[in-house]
Design a protein that fits this description.
The protein is mostly helical and 229 residues long. It contains ten helices and no strands. The chain is globular and about 55 Å long.
Length: 229
């Protein structure tokens, strides 16, 4: 596990201090909503770096990711959360001219992603079956369809599609933790938690960096803006 700030990822292109300093240097010329997103995401990423357990780290990393992508959406046209973050990931992939996300997915984490895709414990339909919401054949069929979609993305180099499938798995793990469906520091979910934490911990700073690179992109209004008296 390690002590504070000992946790690092080999493919992070910038450290927290570097990204924070870069934001300080450019924020006066950036839109207010983008600055708020980046400021919040950086703060939660830093908190994740200071945490010495995988459960807490994953939760803080997800909050950092949420701070980066969440938008104010009219109630009439509100998308599901998964659809919202998939659209965000697609936008980032389209802006990533240097293919940093591709390198992360295809070089750094391809093996772990394949293992994750074969793990039913981070697939929501598996739990829907065990809670009696769907039948056994239903969850197995959905599981195979999801793997086929991911393998098609792997075979064709479709990074947005693959990230969409992977984030569905990450989101299931997020729900397990946030809704009290797992024991802190429990023994039954350690490997998938470590793999998901490593992946999300490498993605978050890269997403922040891409947002800093493209301040004129329409990122949308940040949720819960700062209200000044």
């Amino acid at each position: 596990m390690g002590g504070k700030l000992s946790f690092s990822f080999s493919c992070i292109s910038m450290s927290y201090d570097t990204l924070k300093q870069r934001h300080r240097e450019v924020r006066d010329g950036y839109p207010e909503d983008l600055n708020l997103r980046i400021h919040r995401a950086l703060s939660w990423w830093q908190r994740a770096l200071l945490t010495d357990d995988d459960d807490g780290r994953y939760i803080f990393l997800w909050i950092a990711f949420n701070a980066a992508y969440a938008t104010q959406i009219d109630e009439q046209s509100r998308l599901s959360e998964s659809a919202t973050f998939k659209a965000f990931l697609e936008k980032l992939c389209s802006l990533d001219r240097d293919k940093r996300l591709d390198a992360l997915v295809w070089q750094e984490f391809s093996g772990r992603i394949r293992v994750l895709l074969d793990n039913p414990y981070v697939f929501q339909s598996f739990w829907d079956f065990h809670s009696g919401r769907i039948g056994e054949s239903d969850w197995k069929e959905r599981f195979e369809r999801g793997k086929q979609k991911a393998h098609h993305a792997l075979g064709s180099g479709n990074t947005p599609m693959l990230l969409g499938v992977v984030f569905n798995r990450l989101y299931t793990l997020r729900n397990q933790l946030m809704h009290g469906g797992a024991t802190w520091n429990g023994s039954v979910n350690r490997q998938q938690l470590r793999d998901c934490t490593e992946l999300l911990g490498s993605l978050v700073p890269l997403l922040i960096e891409l947002m800093l690179d493209h301040p004129n992109t329409l990122w949308g209004e940040a949720c819960y803006p700062v209200i000044r008296d």
